[in-house]
Every structure is written in structure tokens, then in C-alpha cells.
Specification:
The complex is a heterodimer of chains A (about 450) and B (about 350). Chain A contains 19 helices and 11 strands. Chain A has about 450 residues and is of the alpha/beta class. The longest helix of chain B is centred in the N-terminal third of the chain and has 16 residues.
């Protein structure tokens, strides 16, 4: 089932003429015949959930937008995709930029935003050019600018490059950065829907969310809601990396089991080099890691599906999160301690330094993990790590603290024996990997390569 | 017509406050132990607060209309009260534990060079860790250090001691006509700095020393001259063309060691003073002395004169049912303190035996 990537493989889809020939900008034509309220209603009906990680219903977010008289409102597209393991938005923007522009025009009309921004990650420099070209093409063909389709609605889209900080993907830090300030997250409330960019009501949405508005308007919200399962409606882009045979971008309708997704030839094609599955991070680096047995089956022994609810089944004790869709697969040769250390280093480097638990705690966790990884750890360090992550989680201004704490917590929760082995066998841990132990994938015997 | 009032309950003590008041300020109106500590919030600086996370409290009831508790601990300095809100501060084990965690985090990279720090004795971080911290540290790594930076002739910056509360940044932004310093870098290597090592040059910039909760920004004209607890604070004023001229002098004998702004019971400046008053008027003849300052903060600087220590109007033991850590007058509980013994009558240096034999 492909909605967003339907025409992804058409040659020249990056350019306006080809995009238009394949049904591009139909949704704008349709949307401008509707009222903004009807569009919001349609998005509500679709059950679309924010694709940036939190999974908050988009229609609801849009309806929260304050509409005071005489105050301009803004739509901001969050293209600051910096989560390790997540690269789905990059693919969308690089190859089908017009899909995002189209979604932005429709959404801007629905929200009444005449000045719409794309805040793009600084490292995506070449994509800025692609987007700006797409915007120029759209403008030349009358989809942007003054009085679009004689509706009386004006809209301009501006692309703003970030400076390369992960924290600027947090919506209020993004807003600060967009205003030209230091990218520190704001303290909420007030939420951006009340006071966002330049203290005006603002909606910040992920690239994929805004792109998904296009099929919702084209086919209707109910048709979109009929795809998927339960509250996980529509299609989701996943960026797969790690030790699978076929890494890349996949669009799924969230009805697949995790087992099917990892092992079937239609998707990842199984673990590379005939190895076994050891662990999986289903939604980008900040969500809890799951050992193989819990990746494929929930704690109740039922099959785990690739959707918001099923991946979160069991809470953080035995489940994880759909997150931003950065699907990372680790095989038996990967060391969980080293993996956790790398993530801790990332979050330490990316903490904005505004609030104390995150600023000091992330660095502390990284130093301890480094000690354990390099054979200088103590048994008490593992409990200390657990205690530090507990004191960061939930006590910070923005979710970066949680994002730093969860991977460490999950690694200790599920792979404590591996940490202990590192402490007890410092020399051996330098030379060889701990292996699979009891959390090995019990189902799939490696096929000889 | 009177303004509508919101009822808010902090640790089972109910108070009526105006809408828009933060939980912290409501708790300050009650006073005493139920007031959460604040390292970054400063009531006189707009936008401050929310960063240090020491004032986290548990909201066990959101409001009368929506009684659901808030899912996470909230920063009381930035959360406004709702009618019927119930807040748990020292009655919540969750809060006490989180606060202990925050104190530990704040001390992770703090050099703890209190013996040579000018702020010692009036340091909010000292008070905080004394009241809420653990007795030891679990941190075993090198603490971060910074290159020394010169901010000019009057203000000395010790970046290693900084807890990044942003108060000085807000002060410069809101009090002076141009801000010359700010926070550079991010994470645990973020630092207060000026661009290209400029010196801070503004006639109100000296106030950053007063707002600094730790010893990161100190007065160069006072540096290493004395310990704050040896100097005696008096309130004084002068006719100043730039500021209100209401200041606090720190005297030893007749010598003015230091001039600061007057601070209220929460350690916040009452009225900002200018650099001229602070750094250049260091003679008693420059000032009209009003009398000894009332230090209501239970700090070491108030040793010997515990005047006006504010206790909660409601007795704490009724609140939590266990013995709270009240602001104790050490002179009334210590065996050593025997006011009936005149030290000057004892021949030679006083010995503990001198106090044991006599009396009772």
C-alpha cells in the first residue's frame, strides 16, 4: 500500500511537470473548493497522527490553534530530522519535494497561514536547493503567491536552514531558532498553538505528516482512516538501517507483523550475513531498545505488529514506541553496551544545557557507559546509571531528557547480563562480543548464506 | 469590587491568591518550609525560571474543574495556579527524591571550592545542598573546566562554578541598554561568555553579581578581601543621580568592604544599584547609614542575629506528622552556647571545659 511513495520511482518526479502529470496538486484544487474548517474536519476524520515521533492526532492539534482577530497565524514544517536512525523525511524532500509543498499549501489554507516556514536541518544543505526550486516552480505555476486559484488566499513558503543542532527539532526550540535566537526549548505552557513564532499562534508539523495531508484530501479522510489498524491509520514511512539485508525507506500500512517486516523479502529481507536477530529499536534512537524475543512477540506471547499500539504494548517494561520510524536492527555481533554508549554520547553532545538534569546527567551517563565499555566499570555503576536516568526522565523542560534516559533504561532492563559481563570480564569484553544469551531470536534459524 | 481569588493548597495549607500567580509565589506567601527552593527563578526578571528544576512540585489535583493530577512534576516557578489546585512539595516523596537528584546534578560539575570562593556564606547552592542534597557524591570523573575569561576591572567570572541559571543574561537584557554577554555552546560545555572576550561595560551591569546564585560572578573590588560572615551588613543610602542609592554596606569596623543591593528574604535584590554606588563608594562618609540589615535568610551571614526568621504561620508538625527540618536557632540548642558566660572573663583562650563546669 503506497500513498506517499506512489510515484517515487517515476523518473523526474522531482520536477513540477512530471509531478503534475502524475496527479500532483489535485489536492490543492480540491481543497480550495472546501472551507478551512472542512479540511480540518477531514484531517480529523482521517485519524492521522503526528509522524515526528509523539504520534499526537494532527486534526486535534490543528483544532487547538488559537484564532485571535487580526493576528497572523503560522504553519511551520519541522524538517529538522536529526534522530539517529531516522531519514524518511530526507527521502521525501529529496525525491518528491512537490508532495511536501502541496501538503503545505493545503495545510496553510486550512490553518490560515500566509507565511509558512520549512525549518530544515542544517546538514540537509543540498535539499534546501531542491525545495527552493520546487517552491519556485509551484509559484510560477500559480500554486503559491498572491490570490492562489482566485481564492483570495495568499501564501508564501520560506525555507530556513538550521545550524545543525538536534535540539532544534523540538518544536519550541525550533521556533526560537527560527526567530533567530539560541535554540533553547521554551517552557510550556504557553503552547505554540497559542504563542508560537513571534508569539503568534503556530502549528508545527513533521514533513511526513504534512505530506500525508495530500492523500487525505484527494481520497477523503474516511478512505485514509480505512487503511491501517485501530488508531494507527494510514501509511507510515520507515527508515530501516542496521544489520538487515535491505536497508532503506519503506512505506507500510501498519498491518504487518514485526516478524514479517524484518524477515520477508518484500521488506527488510531478514538479517544480513546469515546472522541472528539480537535486538531492535523500532522508532528511532530515543525509543527503548527491545531484545529479539520481545521484538517479535509481546509479553503476552502475541505477535507484535508494526503500529503505534502494538509496538507500545507492555509499556516501557516490555514494549517500545513507534516513534519517528527509524527502525534499527542489531544482529548477534553487536554490543549493546557500546551501542548504548554511542547513543549516550549523542544525547550528551546535543543537550542544550538549559536545565540541570539533562545538562549534567547526560554527560555523567556517557562517562559511566564509556568506563563500562572500556573495561573500567564497576558493578555499582549499573545501578548508578539506572538511578541517573530515573532522575532525568520527566524532570526536564523538553523531551530530550526522556530521549536520553529511555535508551539507557531499556538497555539495562533487557540486557543487564551483558553490562554485568562487561564489568566482570573487562579484558574479554574488549576482544569479543557477549553474544545472544537468552534474548536470542527464538524463531528464525539462520539460513546458510 | 475585589479581584477574584484562586484557592490553592500547598502541602495542606490553603491560601487565596490572585489569578496568574505561580505556584512558587503562592508558596512564598505561605513561607517557611513549604516554599520550594529556586536557583534560576528571579521574580524581578521576566522570563527567568524553569531551568534549574529545583522547584519541581507535584500537582496532585489540577483544579476544581479538572481535578486530574498533572502527570509529571512541574516547575512551580513557571506554573500558574488554578482555582482549587492542590500542590505537594515537602509532603511528596517523589518531589523530595527528584530534588535530591537535581541537587546532585547541579553539583556534578561544580568545583566545590567553597573555601576560596567569595560567595561562600551567602551561596544559594550551599544552602540548597545543605537542605536538600545528599551527604556525598557518586560522581567519580573529572569536573569540567573552562579557560579563564576576563570581564573587565570590576566583575570576575568563574565559569567552573556556574550553574547556567541565565539570571545574569536576563539582567543584562532587561536592565541595561545593551547585552554584551550570553551563553555560548551547549550542553555541559555551555558557558557564560562575551563575544570575542569583551569586557562588560554598563553602569548597571554590576547587578549580575547580586543575581548570581553561586560564585560564578563576583565583585573584583571585594575579591579575597574578607569572608562575608566576618563583615557586618548595614543598610545605607546616598543621593545617587543614577540609581535609588539604597544599598547595603558590608563593614568591618568602619571600613566598607563591599557594597551590594539590598536583598529580600528570598535572596532577591529589592532595588537595583548602579556601578558607581557598588564599586566606587567605599567610604563610610559616602553613605548615610540607616542601621543593621535584617537578614532573614537562614544563612551563615546572619550568625549571631537571627532576627525575623520567618516561620510558617501553620505549624509544620501538623502538616506532615513528622519532625520537619525547621530553621533552628543553633544558639538555643547547642551546649556550647552559654550566653551567661562572658567570654571576656575567661582567662586565655576559651576551652570546652569552661562551658561544662559552670551553670545549670
Amino acid at each position: 500500500m503506497k500513498l506517499l511513495l506512489e510515484h517515487a520511482h517515476v523518473e523526474g518526479i522531482r520536477y513540477y511537470d512530471t509531478y503534475r502529470k502524475h496527479g500532483g496538486y489535485r489536492s490543492v484544487e480540491k481543497a480550495f473548493k472546501m472551507t478551512p474548517e472542512e479540511i480540518v474536519e477531514e484531517v480529523k476524520k482521517s485519524g492521522l497522527r503526528g509522524r515526528g515521533g509523539a504520534g499526537f492526532p494532527t486534526g486535534m492539534k490543528w483544532s487547538f490553534l488559537a484564532k485571535p482577530e487580526g493576528v497572523p497565524r503560522h504553519l511551520v514544517c519541522n524538517a529538522d530530522e536529526s534522530e539517529p536512525g531516522t531519514f524518511k523525511d530526507r527521502y521525501l524532500m529529496e525525491f518528491i519535494p512537490h508532495l511536501l509543498i502541496e501538503g503545505l499549501i493545503v495545510s496553510s489554507f486550512a490553518l490560515g497561514s500566509s507565511m509558512t516556514y520549512i525549518y530544515i536541518r542544517g546538514e540537509y544543505a543540498w535539499i534546501v536547493d531542491i525545495l527552493e526550486q520546487a517552491i519556485t516552480e509551484a509559484k510560477n505555476n500559480g500554486w503559491l503567491g498572491k490570490n492562489i486559484l482566485n481564492s483570495g488566499f495568499d501564501c508564501e513558503i520560506y525555507v530556513q536552514r538550521g545550524g545543525g543542532a538536534y535540539i532544534c527539532g523540538e518544536e519550541t526550540a525550533l521556533i526560537e531558532s527560527l526567530e533567530g535566537k539560541r535554540g533553547n526549548p521554551r517552557i510550556k505552557p504557553p503552547f505554540p498553538a497559542i504563542q508560537g513564532v513571534w508569539m503568534r499562534p503556530t502549528v508545527v508539523n513533521n514533513v511526513e505528516t504534512l505530506a500525508a495531508v495530500v492523500p487525505i484530501i484527494n481520497n477523503g479522510g474516511e478512505a485514509y482512516a480505512s487503511i491501517g489498524v485501530g488508531k494507527s491509520t494510514g501509511t507510515k514511512l520507515l527508515s530501516v538501517c542496521g544489520n538487515v539485508k535491505k536497508q532503506g525507506i519503506y512505506e507500510i500500512d501498519m498491518t504487518q507483523t514485526v516478524e514479517e517486516f524484518i524477515f520477508s523479502d518484500e521488506y527488510c529481507g531478514g538479517i544480513a550475513n546469515g546472522k541472528k536477530l539480537k535486538a531492535c529499536i523500532p522508532g528511532g534512537s530515543s525509543v527503548p531498545i527491545l531484545p529479539a524475543n520481545l521484538t517479535l512477540k509481546t509479553a503476552k506471547g502475541e505477535a507484535r505488529y508494526m503500529n503505534y499500539e502494538s509496538l507500545a504494548d507492555g509499556g516501557f517494561a516490555t514494549g517500545s514506541m513507534m516513534g519517528s520510524g527509524g527502525f534499527i536492527v542489531l544482529d548477534e555481533d553487536q554490543c549493546v553496551v557500546r551501542h548504548t554508549m554511542t547513543l549516550a554520547r549523542f544525547y550528551n553532545h546535543e543537550s542544550c544545557g538549559q536545565c540541570s538534569p539533562c545538562r549534567e546527567g547526560t554527560g555523567w551517563m556517557y562517562k559511566i557507559l564509556k568506563n563500562i565499555e572500556y573495561g573500567k566499570g564497576k558493578m555499582s555503576d549499573i545501578d548508578l546509571l539506572w538511578d541517573i536516568q530515573r532522575k532525568i526522565e520527566g524532570n526536564t523542560i523538553c523531551p530530550l531528557g526522556d530521549a536520553a534516559a529511555w535508551p539507557v533504561a531499556a538497555a539495562i532492563r533487557h540486557f543487564r547480563d551483558e553490562f554485568e559481563w562487561h564489568v566482570n570480564n573487562p579484558d574479554e569484553a574488549q576482544n569479543r562480543n557477549y553474544g545472544l544469551a537468552h534474548y536470542a531470536d527464538p524463531i528464525h534459524v539462520p539460513v546458510s548464506a | 469590587m475585589s479581584e477574584p481569588k484562586f484557592k490553592v493548597t500547598v502541602d495542606n495549607i490553603t491560601i487565596e491568591v490572585a489569578p496568574g500567580t505561580t505556584i512558587l509565589n503562592a508558596a512564598r506567601m505561605i513561607g517557611g518550609d513549604v516554599t520550594p527552593p529556586a536557583m534560576c527563578y528571579y521574580s524581578k526578571l521576566e522570563g527567568s525560571g524553569g531551568k534549574c528544576r529545583t522547584c519541581l512540585v507535584e500537582v496532585s489535583k489540577g483544579s476544581e474543574k479538572d481535578p486530574r493530577p498533572m502527570p509529571k512534576l512541574v516547575a512551580s516557578c513557571r506554573t500558574t495556579v488554578m482555582d482549587g489546585m492542590e500542590v505537594k512539595n515537602i509532603t511528596s516523596d517523589k518531589v523530595l527524591e527528584a530534588r535530591k537528584g537535581v541537587v546532585e546534578m547541579l553539583l556534578v560539575n561544580h568545583p566545590l571550592d567553597c573555601p576560596v570562593c567569595d560567595q561562600a556564606g551567602e551561596c544559594h547552592l550551599q544552602d540548597l545542598s545543605y537542605e536538600h542534597g545528599a551527604s556525598g557524591t557518586r560522581y567519580e570523573f573529572d569536573r569540567r573546566t573552562f579557560e579563564k575569561e576576563d570581564l573587565g576591572d570590576f566583575i570576575s567570572l568563574h565559569m567552573t562554578r556556574c550553574i547556567l541559571c541565565y539570571r545574569c543574561v536576563y539582567t543584562a537584557e532587561q536592565l541595561t541598554n545593551k547585552r554584551e554577554h550570553g551563553v555560548l555552546d551547549r550542553g555541559d560545555h555551555a558557558s557564560i561568555s562575551t563575544l570575542l572576550g569583551k569586557s562588560l561595560d554598563n553602569e548597571f551591569i554590576g547587578n549580575v553579581i547580586d543575581v548570581c546564585p553561586v560564585g560564578a560572578l563576583t565583585d573584583k573590588t571585594f575579591r579575597f578581601k574578607n569572608r562575608v560572615w566576618f563583615t557586618k551588613p548595614v543598610d545605607a543610602h546616598r543621593d545617587c543621580p543614577t540609581c535609588s542609592g539604597k544599598a547595603r554596606l558590608w563593614l568591618r569596623g568602619d571600613e566598607v568592604f563591599r557594597v551590594t543591593a539590598r536583598k529580600d528574604e528570598w535572596g532577591e535584590v529589592e532595588e537595583w544599584i548602579c556601578n558607581d554606588c557598588r564599586f566606587h563608594k567605599k567610604e563610610t562618609k559616602d553613605w548615610v547609614v540607616e542601621g543593621p540589615s535584617k537578614i532573614s535568610r537562614h544563612s551563615v551571614i546572619s550568625q549571631g542575629h537571627y532576627v525575623g526568621v520567618k516561620k510558617a504561620p501553620v505549624l509544620i508538625d501538623k502538616v506532615i506528622g513528622k519532625d520537619p527540618k525547621l530553621l533552628m536557632d543553633i544558639h538555643s540548642i547547642s551546649d556550647v552556647n552559654r550566653p551567661e558566660i562572658e567570654l571576656s572573663k575567661i582567662a586565655g583562650p576559651a576551652h570546652s571545659n569552661d562551658f561544662k563546669d559552670t551553670g545549670k
